[in-house]
Amino acid sequence: MSAIHFISGLPRSGSTLLAALLRQNPRVHAGMSGPVGGMLSVLQQEMSARNEYAVFLSDAQRERILRGVFEHYYGPEYEAAVIFDTNRVWCARMSLLRTLFPQGKVIACVRDLPWIIDSVERLIQRNALSPSSIFNYQTSGTVYSRAEGIANGEGLVGYAYNALKEAFFGDYAANLMLVQYDTLVAKPQLVLDAIYDFIGEPAFRHDFDNVRFEADEFDARTGTPGLHAVRQRVVATPRTSVLPPDIFQRFQNDAFWRNPALNTRKVRIV
């Protein structure tokens, strides 16, 4: 079976761009968020004590079944030597990943929270005629209610942020690397070289002027065109926030990974 690694972290922080770059390497397969994380969650629930027949399952059987999801999902049609599965849930499943794939690494994409919320709001405003699944297709909210909705513990940003903290401060942080969005768009080869070193793969020279990734149909079905859009050329683009100043300031100090004193697990940050 191919070596399995994972892309996770915060939304709107470069995970799709990172996957688009990694797949330039013929040894690597990477894509946008997929169904494997959800499938594992459902299976674990059904193999737990909530199911009276779980008494017939041993932990060894559970482990084989869960690993088999990866083995069968990434079947013969995936010929890459290295596979990255993308899902924001992986940061909250570090102990499970360590059990199933002890050599597997998690690459978590991070970005300052005000700019993540700004990116979501900009996307919503750009698609004014198409209500988004991010907000349950509701059209009556304001920028304040939308920011609150995605920042709460079960929201698009809040859940991922809490999962990231769980991974960063937890016992399995040695398997975690953080990739900052600003570094990825400004120094992409540096980021990719660090990832290859982290997972034990030989370096590969990427083309940052011809990046390709297509997910238009998926984005359209979620009512959020452009959700996974990737520019052809990797470049840092300065811009002014569309958020009111009080929203921007509310989240301005939440980038805990920027404080070296908090990195007690010595997580590698690029």
TrEMBL record:
SUPFAM superfamilies: P-loop containing nucleoside triphosphate hydrolases
UniProt keywords, alphabetically: Transferase
GO molecular function terms listed in the Swiss-Prot or TrEMBL record: transferase activity
Pfam family for this entry, one: Sulfotransfer_3
Protein name: Sulfotransferase
Species annotation: Thauera humireducens
